[in-house]
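Q: Predict the assembly, please.
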Amino acid sequence: MSKSSFGDFINKKVLPPIMKFVNTKAITALKDGMVYALPFIIIGSVFLILSNIPITSVANALKASGWSAVFSQAYTASFGLISVWASIGIAYVYVRNEGYEPLPAGLTSLSAFLILQFLQVDNPLVASMGKAGSGITNAAGSTVMSGTQVAQNIDKLPHALQTFLSSPVTNVINITWLGGQGMIAAIIIGILVGWSYSKMLKAGWKITLPEQVPANVANQFTAMIPAGVILTASMLLYAFFKMVMSTDLLQLIYKMLQTPLQGLSDSLGGALIIAFLVPFFWFFGVHGGLIMGAITSGLLIPNTFDNARLFNEGRLSLANGAHIVTNEFYNNFINLTGSGITIGLVIFTLYAARSAQMKSLGKIELVPALFNINEPFLFGLPLVMNPFLAIPFFLTPVIVALTTYLVIYFGIVPPLNGVAAPWTTPPIISGFLIGGWKMAIWQTIVLIMSTAIYFPFAKKYDSYLLAQEQEKIANETK
Amino acid sequence: MSERTIMLACSAGMSTSLLVSKMLAAAKEKGKDYKIFATSTADIDHQLEFTKPDILLLGPQVAYMKDEIKKKTDKAGIPMDVINMTDYGMMNGAKVLTTAEEILNGRA
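A: Predicted assembly structure:
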């Protein structure tokens, strides 16, 4: 197959269905709804860093003074509520795009999200008991009673008291489900609520009041029927899962859907596919970073969240279940200095380019590249549909994903700590924030890798451009 | 009060804001007083309602959303177009501004 017919094939056969999928109401709502969670994730990350300063003496002082717990509180109530933000935001955007008053739908979604989970937490006693139990620790973190001892003491109590002490604490919201674990459920609920809410309004299921009623009063009644139907349906679902299966929908979704999907996204294969598809879409002029971000963030953000939780508990390691591929792996490695990791091209254009086009673009792109933006290169060099630079453009993110995965896997660099730096954070600084000084050094190595991979190809393209430019000048002077 | 309001949109409004500064410089050179700003595609609805721009220019990287966004601009009664890829890449503010003016004047 020749190049142009292959391009045609992709543009006519492959991209349209993908674009259709990306532009469905559900995916649009997911993508734009998650945006509302971002400020909380990023601000929460600041509190996460503060409560876990990577300098031991400072960290100990903060713990002793009680400030560590205070920062932790702020983190839990911001970053820790990502599923709440997602459930509200997604239903909100869905209904807004359908042209109805969106906030009641967002709130209905949150309500449904809470109805569908047990409002209880396991008694801490249960986790502390037995050989595998955590035992009881004092404020300084040392064990004062082992799991076995706890169990022995509890066993001495009358049976009724034993049952009472180890039964779940009820009438509380379990924040575990408001964080990363509830994410996929929140997305599904948000989309379903947005969809059904809009459908009902479209079908005219609302209480119509006489015109004399003020608009604001009437608006409150608009939400009543759809919200009532959705919440009743949620309640019946809750009853079904509780009575028939002794579980709740959130746990079910977490076990059946989220855990396997998270595992998939956190595999080497998953990382390589994501890394490959970003430049792949861009090659055809479509915003690959945006599309892959929309598809993967629902999985990668929970991965980030798991790492943040482990980091906050001071036990971040792969052995404890930390993920290698998180949302930061995507933002701050696969897309470092822009899709295709084009910093190498910037360096080439600034120091080695001879053609006017590359030279002038290097000047335009230098500053944006520091903030991980590279549209000037994508469209100006261009990288879109450019066979000269296609190989390094596809190869660099894949190689970076592969090597980054391996250095974390083999423990050379610790796992990403779950801190979310905005994707525009300059390289090396972002590395330091999301994984400490070792990650910052690794990011520096990534920048060097990019330069090494792009250099020979850029040189060839540069001489081609130069020849073109000289030919043009020669023609003009004739 | 500015003569015209030109809205640019891309995925996050980041890279188009680069172009905005170039376009503003080009407008100033021409002695025109335009309001030019960049936003994200997610924010288009809001801006159409509140800022009421006279034209919407879309970054080429989100050209795949053209049909969907055209429905919105048609509803708002303003023209829209996708920015030429090369002009966008070279951050050619003057050229993009001229295109915008041509579309606006063609309508007026």
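Chain A has 24 helices and four strands. Chain A has a mean pLDDT of 89.
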